[in-house]
Write a structure and sequence with these properties.
The protein has 171 residues and is an alpha/beta fold. It contains eight helices and six strands, in the order βαααβββαβαβααα. Strands 3-4-2-1-5-6 form a six-stranded mixed sheet, with helices on both faces. Helix 5 links the parallel strand 5 and strand 6. Helix 4 packs parallel to helix 5.
């Protein structure tokens, strides 16, 4: 099952110290740095669809703008519409195949309501966008989820949490 990874672009940029510095120099520089990192991630995971949503609310076009860059879908919301609204629409459409990358609590709650999965922007960056060799190994993160030696249904996580973890492992 291919995943649709939906990224709240400016949220991820502003959660990352390096990307925030690029954005401080020039707004387009922050976006390009993020897209370059995501393109590198997509080369390692070519089966996943990646869509980055940016706010066009205050200075954007009157229509929603869609573009394709380096194998990534890039969406700018139309003037007067928040990127969150576009992300909610995408989540409602893709539901179980969607994973949203954001630290916005409202979007995280919406994702849970429609049956999608979410991951915080700092976690996604640390685990998947770090330069090779610095990323957190999956064995280390899997080991912290459950203490060793506990087995059986009484110690099993609730089904919704197990499904969420299973989708996040596919990232």
């Amino acid at each position: 099952m291919a995943l649709h990874i939906i990224i709240d672009g400016y949220n991820l940029i502003r959660q990352s110290p390096e990307l925030r510095q690029c954005e401080a120099r020039e707004l387009a520089g922050g976006r390009q740095a993020l897209l370059a990192r995501l393109a590198a991630y997509r080369r390692h995971r070519p089966g996943h669809r990646v869509t980055v949503v940016f706010d066009g609310r205050e200075g954007g076009d009157w229509r929603e703008t869609r573009d394709r860059q380096q194998g990534l879908g890039v969406v700018y919301s139309r003037r007067g519409e928040a990127a969150d609204d576009v992300i909610k629409r995408l989540l409602a459409r893709d539901r179980a195949q969607a994973i949203v990358v954001t630290s916005d609590r409202e979007l995280q709650h919406w994702a849970e309501q429609v049956g999608a999965t979410w991951i915080g922007a700092p976690d996604f960056e640390k685990r998947h966008l770090e330069p090779q060799g610095q990323a957190v190994p999956e064995e280390a993160e899997a080991g912290s989820l459950r203490p060793p030696g506990k087995k059986g249904p009484a110690r099993r996580l609730p089904k919704r949490q197990r499904q969420r973890q299973q989708r996040l492992r596919k990232l």
